[in-house]
Amino acid sequence: MKNYDPAQICVVADSKLLSLLPETEYPVLGIDIREADKSLETVARIWDFLFEHDITRSGLLICIGGGALTDMGGFAAATYKRGIDYINIPTTLLAMIDASVGGKTGVNYNGLKNSIGAFYPPVGTLLCPDWLKTLPSEQLLSGFAEMLKTGLLSGSALFTRLLQYDLAAMDTDALMPLVTDCIRVKRRIVEADPQEKGQRKALNLGHTVGHALEEVSITSGGPALPHGYAVLYGLITELYLSAVKFGCPREPLQQLTDLMIHYYGRIQCKCSDRDRLLELMRQDKKNEHATDINCTLLGDVGQPLVNQLISPDEMNEALDYLFSL
Amino acid sequence: MKNYDPAQICVVADSKLLSLLPETEYPVLGIDIREADKSLETVARIWDFLFEHDITRSGLLICIGGGALTDMGGFAAATYKRGIDYINIPTTLLAMIDASVGGKTGVNYNGLKNSIGAFYPPVGTLLCPDWLKTLPSEQLLSGFAEMLKTGLLSGSALFTRLLQYDLAAMDTDALMPLVTDCIRVKRRIVEADPQEKGQRKALNLGHTVGHALEEVSITSGGPALPHGYAVLYGLITELYLSAVKFGCPREPLQQLTDLMIHYYGRIQCKCSDRDRLLELMRQDKKNEHATDINCTLLGDVGQPLVNQLISPDEMNEALDYLFSL
Q1: Assembly ipTM
Q2: Which of A81, A205, A273, B142 could form a disulfide with B228 if both were Cys (CB 3.0 to 4.6 A apart)?
Q3: SS3 content of chain B, % helix, strand, coil (to 5)
Q4: Are B78 and A118 inside 8 Å of each other by CB?
Q5: What phi, psi does A30 have (nearest 5°)?
Q6: Which among B106, B128, B99, B12 is positioned nearest to B59, based on CA atoms?
Q7: CB pair distance less than 8 Å for A116 and B286
């Protein structure tokens, strides 16, 4: 990594982590993060902070926090003076797995998650395992669901190791080698297709349904579904579709269903949310079709099938399966 | 260029050009352009328009207008769903020369020109010479100043041909071969350094001073200085610095001064604007230094010197020259 003028370095961090940070000479902007805050207005606060400190194009922004923080920090860096360097220090398991690799940045807009953003990778990502010890189990479970997705894409070796991990004990030291392997799998997929023109869409497994569930939970005013929980419900729905449409074995579907029942809990959905769910899936930014829903499905563990078109009727049947569990 | 689904194509155009466009099956968003409108709010209108028409990541945005329109359309395309394709159809001489090549997109923010944006090139640019016949002479003169800058960077052959062009007659047919040659020069510079890490800064000749003059004219509430006029005044100021600091011959300085007096008119500046001018130059996004001003200067015609540091005193002396003409 190149050397930066110390006067040209700024930090943006989740404000609830400020007391955990070491003392620093760099200016620090604390951001109070809730998903509802992942907005252009918050990005503008980061821009204003960079302007205040006279950060030039050769400056550096260090982003410390979960995925929402690094997504916004990355987007601010991507667009401030047409782009400055940034480093991510992910502090949640989800951010380590999902947001720290791949260069996706962005904000929610118009009621749609990450609908405004850029592909703009950080110049570096620092993984500090100690952050994992600060997390409540809900957040570890949320990140673990993304790891399960990565395992499903990678193949039975990694997926089996993940299933063997003891979610009841949740030993973070035993988790780190699995984290590293998941990041390696993601990096391989992203580097082969940085702009998500084709195979990178494999990473979307579980997310077409998951994003829609997450958004409905947010807009319905109740507590927001944690991203990884939504992804797990999405994986179950999409594994069901994979079994019905492509003969994917039902074993991984059953294994995830068991994990869900034991650790994550079932999901509730009001009938009145159904139309909104389908509408959101149609509008997903990865969807290139106006009527059907574009999903990544599996032929088998380790065999992603991108750009599969699902009719609203098929999706409704799969959602029936999820909601009946 | 790839084929686009006709249902996935949208047009954004300067609203005063709508009556000149051929009938089209594509949805058209008209934008009333004034420099003050080159804002994030206007970009959001383009995003909203794309959402309304269910444009997916494989969609296409066609931008028809001057540089302000194509800068905003390009930035909207760069950030909508993390980036969709766009095509520029520049309708002013300035946009043909300056905005159509190089992939710079952006908006004004925080009182600073183009301070938020992205490097995101269009998939294509369509040059239609007939647009030039629709332009008032002020706009042709404005674009011609950018051509003079390109000539100064390229070498005496192109610069001499530009000086021989008859600005009084302003024959647009005779202008087109010069336009094409200027675009070729710019493309060569941009392709060697797309992210503006080094040599591309040569294109900034005249712009450190020019941008500051333009902004002061806007914020002072009077009529905005046309961009190219500001660039010509900037070129004169920076050629003066080039002569004083690097022994650049005074002939091109005199030639531009003569053109200015005959065709563009002198520039007025209130003493109270001086501090603001220097402050703006320091904050220019290409400036990487906090106290001095970073400029591109010339050792001679065809010999750009990027990243030259100018002290506030030196800049004041050069501005004295400009304002005394």
Answers
A1: 0.83
A2: B142
A3: 55, 15, 30
A4: yes
A5: -90, 135
A6: B12
A7: no
